[in-house]
Amino acid sequence: MKRSVTAHLELYLHGEADLIFSIAVAQGVETTETFEISSGGTRLEAHEVIGRHGTRLHRLTGPVGPMVIDYSAEVTGQAEPAAVEELDLIEYRRPSRYCESDTLFPTAQSEFAGVHGKDLLDAVSSWVGDRLVYVAGASQPTDGAVATMLARAGVCRDYAHLVVALLRALDVPARLASVYAPGLFPMDFHAVAEAYVDGAWQVVDATALAPRSSLVRIATGQDASETAFLSQHGAAVDLRWMGVTAVVDELPGDDLTRLVSLR
Predict the structure, then answer these.
(1) C-alpha distances in angstroms, 211 versus 16, 66, 95, 140, 192?
(2) Hey, what CATH class is 86-226 in?
(3) Looking at domain 2-78+231-245, which CATH architecture does it have?
(4) Is the pTM value of this prediction over 0.90?
(5) Contact 129/65 with Cβ under 8 angstroms?
(6) How far, in whole angstroms, is CA 105 from its chain's centroid?
(7) On the CB side of 229, how many CA atoms lie within 13 Å of its CA?
(8) What is the pLDDT of residue 257?
(9) Which of 42, 67, 240, 251 registers the highest number of CB atoms within 10 A of its CB?
(10) Where are the domains of the chain?
(11) Tens digits of residue pLDDT in 27-64
(12) Which residues pair with 19 in a beta bridge?
């Protein structure tokens, strides 16, 4: 399987800012890539910081003014299944900033009591998919799973947050992954949940907008606070334009009766 991905960002910095990009393909898969950043016609160099689960962060200090970021990668083959660490199985059962599993405990218990394993993943995914409407711009950057459930609308990260929160409320370790998603429409960075079931991390995507087997991991963490494509400190930064592409040599189908790992 050969997958090709790109990301193009156009920013405006209102002051000197510390920028951290999370748009590069995660470690663990064979990749040929380019990463270019320029400001006012001058090329800038970011240094790479390796985060948890092979997340690759690129950090630099940006000057005042416009900035253009271009990333492209060709991914050949697939990564090994994600490692399972004991600490992950502890931390990813806890409530987090955007996944308030403690608040959603009564809902999870009333809707899914007695359901386990793959049947639970299917039930939670279907429940979230049936109750939410995918609406661009329907949610705010600060909205978590509880706000999403009340609003009954959101985008991929909102779906994923609600899935993660419900699963954690049922003592299933769950986390968020940002991905490139061939077949996704509308095309953008995508977010899915991963749940620890049957001894491995399994993809749960309640949006069902892209085949799970073609996804390419970018970042992994508790929720969107650890997987955002851009973080800035020190000055305001405007996102003037963004374009993302993701294609695969042959788009696979998605058999929802199977468990699928993000590779």
Answers:
(1) 40, 36, 28, 26, 11
(2) alpha beta
(3) Sandwich (2.60)
(4) yes
(5) no
(6) 23
(7) 23
(8) 87
(9) 67
(10) 2-78+231-245, 86-226
(11) 999 999 999 999 999 999 999 999 999 999 999 999 99
(12) 60, 232
